[in-house]
Amino acid sequence: MPDSHIFTKLNMSFEDLGVVSDYLSRSSVFQHYRLGDLLGIIKQQLATKCHFAVVKDRKLIGYAGWLDTTIESGELWMANKGLLVRSESDVADAAALTIVEVDNSAHVLPLIRRLRDDRKGKQIFFKREYETKDRKGRKGSVLNVEMMK
């Protein structure tokens, strides 16, 4: 039987905020974040629909969230010279992937593809950190262009 999961956007509700918060709290990467900081980020992502979730059998098994921003802010963030500054989606020329957590690593690329589909024509920034110290983190940026057909 194939893996029956769906990729979806959640609502800004206490229930969905609790589901995402609980899910991320079980990750060793996010366990060390201050609760208020992490909740603020998740609330903003849910309210602005800057996220995708992977759900299987009514259970959250993956989450990716981003922040609409500017290329200038994204470049400073990538260089560790500034914090990301949120921009309204209609004027943002970039997005920064800020949260990714999955139960199955096979869901990472499909989540990122959905972000890219959602933010066509914008620069996408990301930083990747791992739970283990033996894996080196990674930074990157891609110009998200629509392919000619």
Task: Show the helix and strand layout.
Blueprint: E1 6-8, H1 14-25, H2 35-47, E2 51-56, E3 59-69, H3 71-78, E4 94-102, H4 108-118, E5 123-128, E6 138-143
Parallel strand pairs: 4-5
Antiparallel strand pairs: 1-2, 2-3, 3-4, 5-6
Helix pairs in contact: 1-2
Give an overview of the whole structure.
This protein has 149 residues and is α+β, with helices and mostly antiparallel strands. Helix content is 30%, strand content 28%. The chain is built from four helices and six strands; from the N terminus they run βααββαβαββ. The protein has a six-stranded mixed beta sheet, with helices on both faces.
Helical stretch tally: 4
Low-pLDDT parts are: none
**Main sheet: strand order:** 1-2-3-4-5-6
Radius of gyration equals: 15 Å
Order of helices and strands: EHHEEHEHEE
Task: Please tell me the overall pLDDT.
Answer: 86
Main structural class: alpha+beta
Tell me, what's the shape?
Answer: globular
Q: Strand-residue fraction?
A: 25-35%
The number of strands is 6
End-to-end distance: 34 Å
Q: What share of residues is helical? A: 25-40%
**Main sheet properties:** 6 strands, mixed
Q: What attributes does this structure have?
A:
six-stranded mixed beta sheet, 28% strand, 6 strands, alpha+beta, 149 residues, globular
Outline of this structure?
By secondary structure, this protein is an alpha+beta fold. It has helices at residues 14-25, 35-47, 71-78, 108-118; strands at 6-8, 51-56, 59-69, 94-102, 123-128, 138-143.
